[in-house]
Fold this sequence. Notes:
single chain, 259 residues, alpha/beta, 7-stranded mixed sheet, 16% strand
Amino acid sequence: MKSNRQLNYHFHTPENPQSSTPIVLIHGLFGDLNNLGILGRDLQQYYPVIQIDVRNHGISPRMENMDYHDMAQDVLQLLDALKVPKAMIIGHSMGGKIAMTLTAIAPERIEKIVVIDMAPVAYPVRRHDRIFAALNNVTALGAQTRQIATEIMRQDIREDGVIQFLLKSFRQGEWKFNLPVLQKEYEKIIGWEIIPAWHKPALFIRGGNSDYITEAYRENIISQFPQATAWVVAGCGHWVHAEKPDAVLRAIHRFLGTK
């Protein structure tokens, strides 16, 4: 199901870019285009940078489907509209799966990808059920302020950092993401269909304390991305870029060959 409306985006071009090939930053589940802003602000000194709201997030179109092929097609449609022939893609979590899917549907349009704490696998564990419960409770109880929403969410979520991340998408009693569709399509979001091997550079960045990328997934990564390299950022979890942005940026710049 294609969207007939364009994804919301920010496009920044430096005066003297090191490369004319843009970097597309793609956030994860429950996020928006600001989530990778700490990476974008650094990278846009050297490259054109496009930050996007994925469908059903931020102010991008609301759709009934969260299939990775369609989400990748959304990005491709935006690149067409912006007349971008080739791009480099950096995606975190769900955004990483969108980045990987782009290599399957438009391999010639993608130069390099950076996947932050995500593997090309279908995950067997539902990690977000407590989050869905908390978000639905906020809606059901009619919370209008972040303070009240916080107290409600603490009944289901123990990590204050997770609550604060989610509340970035809370405005005047409404969630900026399409909660009913995300919940309905959750099996697709944690799922994966094996894609053809893509023989271009791919960097996988893992949080040392995260279990999203483990040794058990090594063969899945290599078979689909034969030129993959890995970088582990010690002492952080799934939100690697937020916990240790300097380490993530060092890995990205080394991978991209930034001057």
